[in-house]
Inverse folding.
């Protein structure tokens, strides 16, 4: 089955760190760009970061630059989002998505991150 | 990064036609980047509904259609059904190669 499954979310204090993982299956992971997208409670979608197949190109939304790092392991079909210096405004459901031709054609179910003291 | 502008909500009776606008600027929709649309049913992850301005993935009913003109795009739902009640988002890319989403539109079936 073609799917993405996120994990690693949870409750963390402001200033803390979390690493999200996304496991891909059912398709040739190593040829696709991968993306993280988030949705704050009751809000819309926000593109967070993407990474190309060989990890050479990575892009981030301005609000997470210097704090978040996207990476991948093509041998294990995994993509990660390392989140440091977390802020209240990072509270959201984080979705992993496969990037097609400048769109996101496959989404995971999401993992919830809550930043609160 | 910029955001694409959508109306917060639209509504219609079953069987009616509704449209959702998506307005960008010259650095995103107004440039060479296509527009894509997503449907998010309550409590679920978004699903790709329309890609490359007007193409429906396999399995998406033909009552969904979309178009792009200049720095704007629109999604139309014809023959509105109860199961179409959801949030809808447009999406494109910016010239700095960052993804950009619309503000989202809640469709209510009266």
């Amino acid at each position: 089955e073609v799917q993405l499954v996120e994990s690693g979310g949870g409750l963390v204090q402001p200033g803390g760190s979390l690493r999200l993982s996304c496991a891909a299956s059912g398709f040739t992971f190593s040829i696709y760009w991968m993306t993280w997208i988030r949705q704050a409670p009751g809000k819309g979608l926000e593109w967070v970061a993407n990474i190309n197949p060989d990890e050479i190109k990575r892009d981030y939304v301005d609000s997470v630059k210097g704090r978040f790092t996207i990476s991948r392991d093509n041998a294990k079909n995994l993509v990660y989002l390392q989140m440091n210096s977390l802020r209240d405004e990072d509270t959201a459901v984080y979705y992993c998505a496969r990037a097609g031709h400048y769109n996101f054609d496959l989404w995971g179910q999401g993992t919830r991150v809550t930043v609160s003291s | 990064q910029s955001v694409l502008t959508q109306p917060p909500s639209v509504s219609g009776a079953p069987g009616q036609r509704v449209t959702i606008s998506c307005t960008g600027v010259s650095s995103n929709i107004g440039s060479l980047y296509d527009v894509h649309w997503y449907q998010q049913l309550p409590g679920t992850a978004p699903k790709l509904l329309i890609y490359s301005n007007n193409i429906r993935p396999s399995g998406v009913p033909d009552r969904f259609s979309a178009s792009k003109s200049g720095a704007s795009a629109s999604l139309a739902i014809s023959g509105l059904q109860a199961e179409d009640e959801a949030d809808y988002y447009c999406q494109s890319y910016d010239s700095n190669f960052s993804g950009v989403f619309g503000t989202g539109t809640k469709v209510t079936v009266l």
